[in-house]
Amino acid sequence: MVPLDLQSVQRLTRDMSDLEVREQLDSRELDQLLQELENTDSETQLECLRGLRMSVAGVRKNAQYVLDKLSSDTKLQDLVCLFFSGTGLSLRIYLQMLANCINQEVIIQECLKESILEISSSIYSNSKDEKSSNVLSSILLSLMKKEENLEKYLQFIDPWIHLISGEEVEFSALCIKHIVLKHRLVELESLKRQALLPILIDLEILPELDIDSVSSIVQDFTFLTDKILTTNIGSVEDLEPEIIMNLLEIIQSAAAITIHQSRLQGMQSLLLNTLYLLRMVHEAGKNGVEDFKPIGKLSELSELQKKTPGSEDDLESNPVFGFKETG
C-alpha cells in the first residue's frame, strides 16, 4: 500500500465533502487513512484525522468499518490512547470522528465501548478544551441510548454538572436528562439528587419525572427538615437553604401536575414539615435571632446584602434565604 503524503490526504479530505465520494470510498482508502495515523509528522497525522472524520459522516458502512478497525487493531488502539492523553486539536478531531461513527446505526464492540468509558474520566478531568468534553458527552449520550443498564455512566454525573456551568453545555445537559429519566432519580444517591436539583429546574423536565422520583425528592426534603424539627441536635440555623428551596420549588411544580397530585396529597409529613419549618423560622425572627428577622422594606434587604460578603450567591447561602417575609 503506497503511503499518502500530506497533499494527497488534504486533496482526499476536500473531495470527501461530497457525499457521493464518501459513499464510493472502499476499504483500501480507509485503511490508508488509518495507517497514516502512525505517521510521525503531526501535520499529516492531523489531516488524516480530518479525513477520517469526513469519511464516516453520514455513511454507515464507512463508520462501521472504522469502528471495527479501532476495535481489532492493537496498533490503532495504542495510537488512540495517545490522542486521548492529549488535550489539543487532535483529541477534539478524533472525538468528532468517533461521534460521527457512533451517532449512526452501527454495532459497537464491547472492547471499544469499555475503552471509551475507561478514558472518559481522564478526559473530563484533564482536558481544558470544553468543546472536546462536549463532544465526548455526545458520544456517551449515544452509547447510553443503546443500553438498558446505565449504572456505569453514573460516574460522569459530577463532570456533567461541572460542564453545565461553562459555555459548552448542550450534550452534558442532555446526558443528565437521559440519566434522570431513564435510570430514575430515585435510584441515585441522595447527595447526587441534591446536586442535580437546580439543573432539573433549568431543564424543565419535571412533567416527565416518574412518581417515584418525585417521591424521592419529597423524602430528601423531609429528611433534611426532620434533622431540625425532630431532634435536639440541629437548629433552624443549620438549614441548607439552597438545597431546601430547590427541593420546595420542584415539589411545588410537581404539585401542579395531575399525575403527582394524589401522591403528594397523601404525604402528611410533607405538609407538617413545611408548616413547622415556616413557624420555626418566623419564631426565630421574633426572638431576635439576627439572620431570621423579617424583612419589611427593600432598604433592609439592601442592608442585608451589605452585611453578606461577596455576591448575590452568598446571600442565597443565608440560612433564611427564601423564608423571610417581605412586604
What does this structure look like?
This protein is mainly α. The chain has a domain at 1-107. The protein has helices at residues 6-15, 19-23, 27-35, 42-55, 60-72, 74-85, 89-102, 110-126, 130-145, 157-164, 170-184, 190-203, 211-229, 241-255, 258-265, 268-286, 298-307, 312-316. Helix 1 (6-15) runs parallel beside helix 4.
- End-to-end gap: 81 Å
Please state the overall shape, judged from the principal axes of the Cα atoms: elongated
> β content, as a range?
under 5%
Cα-based radius of gyration, to the nearest Å: 26 Å
Per DSSP, the total helix count is 18
Q: What is the mean predicted local confidence, pLDDT? A: 80
| Poorly predicted runs of 5 or more residues | none
- The ordered H/E elements are HHHHHHHHHHHHHHHHHH
Structural class: mainly alpha
Number of strands: 0
What summary fits the major beta sheet?
none
In terms of quaternary structure, what is this? Answer: single chain
> In which range does the helix fraction lie?
55-70%
Task: Summarize this entry quickly.
This protein has 327 residues and is mainly alpha-helical.
Describe how the helices and strands are arranged.
Blueprint: H1 6-15, H2 19-23, H3 27-35, H4 42-55, H5 60-72, H6 74-85, H7 89-102, H8 110-126, H9 130-145, H10 157-164, H11 170-184, H12 190-203, H13 211-229, H14 241-255, H15 258-265, H16 268-286, H17 298-307, H18 312-316
Keywords:
single chain, 327 residues, mainly alpha, 18 helices, elongated
